[in-house]
Design brief:
By secondary structure, this protein is mostly helical. Helices cover about 45% and strands about 5% of the residues. It has 2 domains: about 1-65, Helicase, Ruva Protein, domain 3 (Orthogonal Bundle), CATH 1.10.8.50; about 65-100. The protein is flat.
């Protein structure tokens, strides 16, 4: 099992898909990394040679901000927005969508699965009296 940036990469998947298990690397950036290193995208992670795995590990850790460092940067950006008191910061504080999505009908997961229409979410009475 290959370990990159503190994440165990799954063996049975293709290398371009398995790189997306690392926080901060999506499908486009994984293809870009593999093309730069000259590694075939269609090979499985278990078939990756140790030399290629080391090259891949070094390239990701040197050139890309991933995992803990990226999470810290995102957290600090949100903290800055909250401190300056901007609208986006207040939305983050309240736990609501910050990018203009509607909140009347959607965002149930953000609002705590609150159902505000009549009859939705009601329990069925076991026996009517």
């Amino acid at each position: 099992m290959v370990r990159i940036a503190g994440v165990n990469i799954p063996d049975g998947k293709r290398i371009d898909v398995s790189l997306t298990y690392i926080y901060g690397i999506g499908p486009a950036s994984s293809r870009k990394i593999l093309d730069e290193l000259g590694i075939d995208r269609s090979i499985r992670t278990k078939d990756l040679s140790s030399v290629d795995a080391n090259r891949l590990r070094e390239a990701i850790e040197k050139e890309h901000r991933v995992e803990g460092e990226l999470r810290h940067q995102v957290k600090m950006s949100i903290k800055r927005l909250r401190e300056i008191g901007c609208y986006r910061g207040s939305r983050h504080q309240k736990g609501l969508p910050a990018r203009g999505q509607r909140t009347k009908t959607n965002t149930r997961t953000v609002r705590g699965n609150v159902r505000r229409t009549m009859g939705s979410g009601r329990r069925k009475d076991a026996a009517k009296t």
